[in-house]
Known about the structure:
It is built from three helices and four strands, in the order αβββαβα. The protein has helices spanning 3-16, 56-67, 78-90, and strands spanning 20-23, 32-36, 41-47, 72-75. Strands 1-2-3-4 form a four-stranded mixed sheet. α1 packs parallel to α3.
Amino acid sequence: MLESKVESRSVKYAKSLGCVVYKLRVRSAPDRIFIIPGRDKFFFVEFKKLGKDPEPHQVREHKKLRDKGLSVYVVDTFEDFKMALQWEIEE
């Protein structure tokens, strides 16, 4: 499945659950930030085409964010996104 299709389906699903979603337009930053309502919690998602890995500059940025204790997920399927969202909701 194309990256754009996974991203749009994931955004629609998250919004249906009340999440606030922003598109990040900063080089190397993950594609989206998802804010979970009522939890003071957020996480980042980098969407990729099925089987593709982030570019080296993206990997470096993801590491910087994770080193600060932030959650960054790289997903290439809608099912992976649903698992990440569920993990963040339950945590």
